[in-house]
């Protein structure tokens, strides 16, 4: 069910420094092995925002990870613009979020009919925005959090099928012109987008301000860039209480149960007996996903 009053939001914009084309030296004095070889093969300069790159360039991003340009671009952020960049395993270095508790095979098993927009690589790229997401607590808690997040966003999007709100009649209603910043992208520009639906001009403004991206003027980023879309969902999960009393992240890591995540996401419309069918649908997905990840559900499944 798509929500009409929910914040969800984007991404943290990155910072920067320079890149280098991947040309090999013409001569090498002697073979290098082991740790020294890894260091030598990773001698790439740091990415710089706004500096043009061509396909094949490899850069070191500000998080210490490496990325290779998959398309020419004018210095787009590797963590945001995942169509233009891909993680690069440099000399044994790790890819960003390479220890994600959900493998690509498990993700595909969870969402066999998903829209191709919701990519696994986009999700992994989004994890860098909130290092505590699925990395807090023991292995059981980490897997529970991943399962809970994916169960809820799967429910919100019909199994990761829908990118935008389906009822287009609602689109013109999501603009409050009385806000001092108005609706610069247009009256009907702030409809629900992403895995946890972001709607209303003031929500796009709040989300963009929090994460360093101008979503108020560029709301389409949420439906055009997979990493941005995923980051909006993770941002809500990690920072927003919604109609609940805690963030969904806190609900899982503090062992308050899956039911509290439902309350924080759509509790006013589903919990306390308001819509038991929708609640049960979320629970069913959560139980399935925890089973796929090989962990237990914990208690307090319902709200």
UniProtKB/TrEMBL annotation:
InterPro entries xrefs: Glyco_hydro_19, Glyco_hydro_19_cat, Lysozyme-like_dom_sf
Mind listing the UniProt keywords for this protein, alphabetically? Answer: Disulfide bond, Plant defense, Signal
Record's protein name: Chitinase class I
Q: From which residue to which does the signal peptide run?
A: 1-29
Annotated Glycoside hydrolase family 19 catalytic domain ranges read: 102-303
- Among its keywords, does the record have Signal? yes
Pfam families, alphabetized: Glyco_hydro_19
